[in-house]
Amino acid sequence: MTGKHIHILEVAEQLFAEKGFDGTSVRDIAGKAGVNLAMISYYFGSKEKLMASLIDFRSGYTRGILEELNKDESLSSWDKVERLIDLYVDKILNNYKFHCIMTQHLPTVQSDEIREMITDIKAKNFEHVKKIITEGQRKKVFRKVDMELTVGTVMGTIAQVTSSKNLYCRLLNINKDDEEGYRKKMIPKLKTHLKQMLKAHLDINNQE
Amino acid sequence: MTGKHIHILEVAEQLFAEKGFDGTSVRDIAGKAGVNLAMISYYFGSKEKLMASLIDFRSGYTRGILEELNKDESLSSWDKVERLIDLYVDKILNNYKFHCIMTQHLPTVQSDEIREMITDIKAKNFEHVKKIITEGQRKKVFRKVDMELTVGTVMGTIAQVTSSKNLYCRLLNINKDDEEGYRKKMIPKLKTHLKQMLKAHLDINNQE
DNA sequence: TTTTATTAATTAAACGTTTGATTGATTTAA
DNA sequence: TTAAATCAATCAAACGTTTAATTAATAAAA
Known about the structure:
The structure is a homodimer.
Chain A: H1 3-19, H2 26-33, H3 37-44, H4 47-60, H5 65-71, H6 77-94, H7 96-104, H8 112-138, H9 147-163, H10 165-171, H11 179-202
The structure holds a DNA duplex.
């Protein structure tokens, strides 16, 4: 993977996020990336394989962070939850475009291979979060909760902020083209909200 | 709007949800609906206007439900939250396909008109929910929470269940093609989870 | 070191197919 | 009879991909 490969992937990422996979032509990508049309087939084989390369490229670089978090014996269950939230919010808001592709276009992707790739990544993430919550329950710090949907709530809340960006820009009086301003305002807001909510949701002292 | 119009919209809805707006051709729609290709232009003007018609068609029939809920003076704030959750979960899970289109394809829709349409609907929904929570706070029943993101959590959790259906089918051992089985299992699960979580999140007795 | 052979990278042009939309003829219903 | 509905046929444009030719880079031979 040379720098040129990566440059094409980054351009494709932006276009896919803005216009969708089917809404983006390989000519769009080639044009914006400043490379010849044929280079995309030459480099990646096809448009579909370019997408697979993009997923591979982006999902690779955060791999391992969750493993580390889970291994850390010095952290309390509450600490782990807080760090988890920080991690996810940062990760997703700072990879806004890629996350848009992952969530928005997943159900429309026709390729079984790509769909399985994405589901696998999500399933692996789920297992890590589940481990943290289960440990907290074993330690009698967390109460019994719906495991799948508690994870779904964390993911879904963050996803909502990216997928309904237009709405939140309007509600918070942010210029909808000011990506940086949106991130700056939304990241701490998201972290605070999720921590406050999970604190109430998971606390064993809050009875059913 | 005749029955034939509606039939085409329903077919288009399913295809848009499965393959995306750009991934669906008007020939796909005409073929599956059993009408002549030219009828789509004849009826709706264009593919884009068909999409606008679909949004108008689907978003119309739930309008007014939230207004009613807010007007009901006999309900406590907790009751209203519970009813709100029931309403949203039923509405979205039973209009799974349309909701997929609304959330997944919104950011990729090029037409400003359609984007504004969707954002307007969401903003209106937000105001209704905000009203319920604000009222509960005024009555000293709910604590202070992040208004925008609390609504975002409810919406996001439900959206997550529809957009990551593949993942949840795997986690819950449901055949991923069994739409009905998924709904049957997920609707009560979602309602219980959201109620439990919001109960903890909003309760004024759960201090920061 | 220079020349030659081989591979890799890049290009413009063209491929066949599909796209959204429209036409003008034909059928149906009022 | 007249207007609306439906049809097959057609359009130009855009699509993803491939081609054949050319340039740049590398390796082998002199």
